[in-house]
Amino acid sequence: MSEAFINSLLSQMTLEEKIGQLNQYAAWGNFDPEVVRQGQAGSVINAAGALTGSSQSESCTAETCNHIQQFALESRLKIPLIFGRDVIHGYRTIFPIPLAQAAAFDPQLAEDAAAVAAREASSDGVKWTFAPMIDIARDPRWGRVAEGSGEDPYLASLLAAAAVRGFQGSDYSAPDKIVACAKHYVGYGAAEGGRDYDAGEISEPTLRDVYLPPYQAAVKAGVGTLMAAFLDLNGVPASANRRLLTDVLRGEWGFDGFVVSDWESVIEVIHHGVAEDRAHAAALALHAGVDMDMASRAYIETLAASLQAGKIPLEDIEEGARRILRIKQRAGLFERPFTDPGQAARPMMTESDRALARRFARQSMVLLKNDVDILPLNPNRFKRILLTGNFLHAKGELFGCWTPDGRSEYVTPLDRAVREVAPKGFDLWEADYVDQALDHASQCDAVVLLVGEYPNRSGENNNVTDLGLPPGQAQFIEAITAMGKPVILVIFAGRPLALGRIVPQVDAVLYAWHPGIEGGAALGEVLFGLEAPTGHLPMTFPRVTGQVPFYYNHKNSGRPLNSPNFFRIRYVDSPSSPLFPFGYGLTYTTFAYNNLRLSSETLQGSLQISAEITNTGSRTGTELAQLYVRDLIGSLTRPVRELKGCQHVTLNPGETRQVTFTLNEADLAFTRADGTFGVEPGRFQVWIAPDSQSGLQGEFSYK
Ligand code: NOJ
What we know:
The protein is of the alpha/beta class.
């Protein structure tokens, strides 16, 4: 089958059937088979409950999807539906939240996890996921930072492509693959004040160089679909932005898949104030390049009349339908509209899936502080350990914000999981209540405090004004530390929290995010040193809430942050620096960086940059070496650092190895004031570094 098949199908379709393809049907409990039989739906979102009227957390089943698909095959042209669902960081095997995944700095792990999710979801009839979410986020008040890869375009681009490969494979018509959807195009993370859905303003160079690259990477990786964002970007609602949805996405990047709106974002352009009614909204969105209308019904209700009134061209409708049919065809739906019951019967959460989830959870945890090497716990030093805090018995609380198909009954409660992996020799105590915890702390050798945010404090529409720990936890920590015992603080969260006052009080801090189905065991393995933590921060950690938005790749300003002058960027009530910079993360050994070398003083085509890294501690360990550059003089101001590469290197105690990065001309290019993209001659700084604020620095020139 080919484009000719799509064209021939289109030529047989009535106007109503073409518009039908543009409609994504959302029906909870009032599903009407006639909508599908009449060819008025191209897709069904969340087929779970569509026939039974049950709740949103019910999973799709192959049986329900097949049942609904049968109605589509009873339609005149028998065009199959595509079933879409939010499979964000796992389907049944829940992996760490995407922000935690980013902390692992490991695209292969992200790809493998997405492949597991695709296999599980497809066996329940889901052929299309609304993931990956690849919005750059610089403000952790925004709850949806949990769903993305953080603040850096280079890392987010690597992970975007990896997720697309994992979900789709090389051919998403394979029964165990699903179509990916890069979302929310674009700029959604720039919502002012961290308020989800609020407007954002992004300059053209920043849009091009920071917010768009992950989308371009997803398109390059072959993503089948994109979702338009809710927000108003620079005065144009993202779901009505023809320049970005059509000129850039299709014109410049050659994307030939389809764009779906976000939930009712088509009609929300009325609230944005650029359309007077549903018909106007639908015409604007369609013309902008939103092919499928998620849930609002505005397309199906108004496009035919708008066409007759001469308000939209037929071509807009046909092009939308063509793109949707194209992706359905690539997804193999015309040949295999149904989910095979054999596939449906395949087990989920297999041993190897869970092992992957555990490994991912471990590698996403970030060790932020480890005074006097208190971790890993050693029974000869600390035998009696108290476990306490609001995550003590956590199960589904370990999942994170987007897990409609996660099942907490398959999670070993955190305390039990930690016990199960604990080596012999420890005496583990538990306390559920504050006063009990204080009493037990006085009798124990060390305390592991398990605190943080429940998943519903992050994710969509869950923004905070205060990045401190949830109410009461700071007092709890203070009370426990007053007992004078070493305290290891483990934080579960969907965002960077502002821990400026907390970190100095405790001996060790391990950031566990929302680690997923194997989070408890993963935590135990890290605490007891069966595995070392290797995660690094994918977002800047502020000291206090008032510092955000805060990100490492900021501009220098005329009175820079780190200048010795009195007149410099600063606050009068807090240091200006972050508590922990982007890229930061400790492990159970230490590393020294030496002998930075550049293959040449000038970059011509490419340049090799190398450094020697030595494991200076007494355990084998893995370091994440990071390559940063700075363009010292540009026609526009340039960021103080930009990540251009990263490599893991595992070293035995005392071992030294050289890491080498290649920097290409294209890595130095940026968007200029006149809209052109290119490299400008001049001096550049380069670092090989353990994080975005330190490292070995060199210099080279271009041309
Ligand atoms: C709204 C969210 O913004 C989007 O991320 C999600 O995929 C859709 N709802 C569908 O659930």
